[in-house]
Amino acid sequence: MATAAKFGVKRRTGGINITPFVDVLLVVLVIFILTSNASIPGIKVELPKASSSTPLEKPKTKAITIDHGGQIFLDAYPVTIAELEERLRTEKATNPDFPVIVRGESSVQYAKVVEVLDLLRRIELNQVGLVTGKPA
């Protein structure tokens, strides 16, 4: 037994090795941080400012964005008015009460926003919100 201690064989001391537990917790923390930033898909636009606003982020929210050139996006994918209507009708068939938010760049033509809102009224979507930025 004296020779085993001489050549570096060590006995394990009592206790719990928490290194694997810490590794798992760090992975869970990273996943949480990445998923917490992914709220509503869409493209970045310069929103008009409002004095008060209510958050409309829900899990199945559809985001319609109108950029400064008048291009319409549904969840960050460019669509035409006809494609937008078709996709929203398909979504309404599977989930009849889903919320929709409309984000229009502050420099966009008002007629384009009204055209999208009129489409949402024709489809009979009840949960529609307009997104604004916070005043500076």
UniProtKB/TrEMBL annotation:
One Pfam family in the UniProt entry: ExbD
Entry's localization field: Cell inner membrane; Cell membrane
Bilayer disposition of the protein: Single-pass type II membrane protein
Keyword Transport among UniProt keywords: yes
Function: Involved in the TonB-dependent energy-dependent transport of various receptor-bound substrates.
Annotated family: Belongs to the ExbD/TolR family.
Species the sequence originates in: Roseateles amylovorans
Transmembrane parts of this sequence: 21-40
UniProt key word Transmembrane helix: yes
Keywords: Cell inner membrane, Cell membrane, Membrane, Protein transport, Transmembrane, Transmembrane helix, Transport
The protein, known as: Biopolymer transporter ExbD
Self-association and partners: The accessory proteins ExbB and ExbD seem to form a complex with TonB.
